[in-house]
Amino acid sequence: MQRINLLLPVLVFFPMLAAVVTYFVGRNKPALRSGLVVFTALAELALTVLCAVKCMGSVCDISACRIGLEMDGFRAIYACIVAFMWAMTALFSPEYFAHYHRRSRYYFFFLMTLGATMGVFLSSDLMTTLLFFEVMSFTSYAWVAHDESTKAKRAANTYLAIAVIGGMVALMGLFLLDHSLGTLKISELYAAASALEDRSVLYIAGGCLLFGFGAKAGMFPLHIWLPKAHPVAPAPASALLSGVLTKTGIFGVLVVSCDILRYDAAWGNVILLLGTITMVLGAVLALFSIDLKRTLACSSMSQIGFILIGIAMQCLLGEENALAANGTMLHMINHSLIKLDLFMVAGVVYMNTHRLDLNSIRGWGKDKPLLNIAFLLGLLGIGGVPLFNGYISKTLLHESIVEYAHHSGSGIITAIESIFLISGGITLAYMTKLYVCIFIEGKKPEKTDKKYMSPMSAAAIMISALTIPVLGALPHLTQDKLAALGTPFMAGGELHHEVEYFSLVNLKGAAISLVIAAVLYFVIVRRVLAKKNANGQLEYLDLWPQKLDLEDGFYRPLLLRWLVAPCGSNGTKPLEAVVAFISSIPDGIVWLLRKTIYKDSPFTPHEHKKYGFAHSFGSLLDKLRGKRHPVRKGEKSYAELMTDVAVTISRTSKGIEGNFSFALLMACVGICAAIIYLLFIVG
Prior knowledge:
Blueprint: E1 3-4, H1 7-26, H2 30-54, E2 58-62, E3 67-70, H3 73-96, H4 103-122, H5 126-144, H6 150-181, H7 186-194, H8 200-217, H9 226-232, H10 235-260, H11 265-288, H12 292-317, H13 322-353, H14 358-361, H15 369-382, H16 389-408, H17 411-439, H18 455-473, H19 479-486, H20 504-525, E4 530-532, E5 538-540, H21 550-564, H22 574-595, H23 605-610, H24 612-625, H25 638-682
Parallel strand pairs: 1-2
Antiparallel strand pairs: 2-3, 4-5
C-alpha cells in the first residue's frame, strides 16, 4: 500500500510561495532578495534529498483538484537533479545579474519555474503533468525575453508559440486517452492500453503527446526555438533550459513510449527516425556555429537525439531492453550535469566580455586555469571520452544499437550505428573548436585587478564540473546504482551481467569517435570553416545557409499562407474572417483605450530623426514639385508626410508583434485555465 506524504506538494509549492515573497522584498532590499533566492534554492535541495530518502514509494493526491504527485526511483533522481541545478545556478546568479535590470522579475520566474518543473517530474498522472508543463512554459518564457532586445523578443515569441501549440495538441491527446482508456494515471496506462483492441487510437493520442512533449525536448522538426532561445537568455537560465526543461519533454516521451506503447516496434521506428535526424542535425548545426551559446544549444539538440535513440531501442528490443533503458536514464542525467557546467562557464565568458562570437572571445580564457579545467571536463564528458560520465551512457546506448542490429540483421540499423559514432565524433570536433578558441588561440588578455568571477560563482562551477569525472571514473559505484533505481519507471529489463565499460570492445567505439573528431577538426574546422585574416590568425566563418532556417524559410511563410488561403468553392476565406473577428476584439479595446484614457501620442522628434531616409525621399518629391505647387498654410510637405508614414508603419509593426506576443501568453494562460477547470470541476 502506498504511503501518503504531504512533503511532496511542499517541494512544488514552497519555491512558488518564495517567489512571491522575494519579489516584494526585492523592490526595496535587492541584497536581501538575492540571499533569500539562494536560501530557497538550497533549502529546496535539502528538502528534495530528504524526501528522496524518506518518502520513496509515497504519493499525495490533492483530491480537490485531482493533482497527483508520487515519489519513486526515477522521480527521486530527477527531483534531486532539478534541485541541484537550481541551487548551483542560484549561487552563480548574484554575480551574473549584478548589473542587469529587472532582477526581481527574473528571480520571481526563476523560483516559479522551479516549482513547476518539480511538479512535472513528480506528477503521477498526465493531467497533472500537462498542468505543470504549461505553467513551466509560461514562466520560462520570461527567461528568454529577459533582455528585451529585438532578438530576445523574437526568440521568446518562437519559444512560446511552440509551447502553446504543443500544449494544445498534447491536450487533445489527453482527451483521446482519457476517453479510450478511462484513466490518465501513469501507473495504470500500460494495463489499460494492453486491454484496448483498437490500437489506432493509441497511435493518434501518442502522436499528439509526442508533438507536445517533443517540442519542449527540442526534437526535430520542432527544435526551432532551441538554437535561438539559448543565446539570448541569461546564462543561468540557458543552463536550466538545456539541462532540465528539455528533460521534461523527454519525461512525456518516456510515458508514451514505455507505458502507452510499450515494446511497440512501429512506434520505436518512428522515434528512431526522429532521434537520428535530431542527433545529426544538432551536431552539424553546432559544428557550423560561431556563437558560443548557440553552439552549446545545438549540442543540446544533438544530445536529445542520442536520448531519443535510446528510447527507440527500448521499444525495439522489447523485454531485453536493459542496455537501452540504462543508457537512456544515464544520458539524461549526464547531459543535465554537463550542460550545467558548460553554460555557467559560458556565462563567465559573457559576464566579462559581453561577447559570444568566437572571433571576439578568442584567447580570453588564457591564464584562467580554474575556468579552463571546468570547460575541459565538460568537453570530455559530452564527447564521450573514457573516464568521464558521458562515455558510460554513450557506451550503453551504442551497445543497445549493436545488440538490436545483431538480432534484426538490418542493414539500416547497422548504418544508424555508424551515424551514432560519427555524431559522437562531430560532438568532439565542435567542442574542441570552442576549447581551442577560448583557451589556446589568440593573444593573452590584458591583466586587470578585477577578478573574473567571485568565489561563490567559482564554487558553483567547480562543484558542477567535478560530478563529471566522479560519475565517469566510478561507474559501478555511481551510475549503475542510479540506473538500477531509475529504470523501473521505463519498464527496463535487468542486466544479465555487469557491463565491462573499459573493455577493448567498448573502448573501440570511443576510439572511432576520437579519430573521426580529429579528422573533422583538422580538415573541416581548420580549413573549411575558418580562414586566416590579415594578422595571420584564423577567423571562424559563419557558412550555414540562412535558407535552411526552418522557422524563417518554412514555418512562418507556411503559417501565413494557411491563414489567408481561400476556403470554399466561391473563393471566400472563412478562416481569415474568423481570425480577423477574434483579433478585432482586443484591437477594439485597445482603440477605445487610446481614444479615452491613453490618448494617441504625437510623433516624437527622435522618431522623425530615426527615419531620416523617408524625410529625404519626401524632400526630393518636394523639389520635383517645385514652385508651381507650393505648400499651403497648414498643409504638410511631402517630407513630413513620408516621415509620418514611416513612423506609422514602424509603430504598427511593433504593435502587431506585441499583440502576437500577448495572444500567445493569453493562449498559454487559457490552456492552464482549461486544465484547472477540468481538474476542479469535471473531476
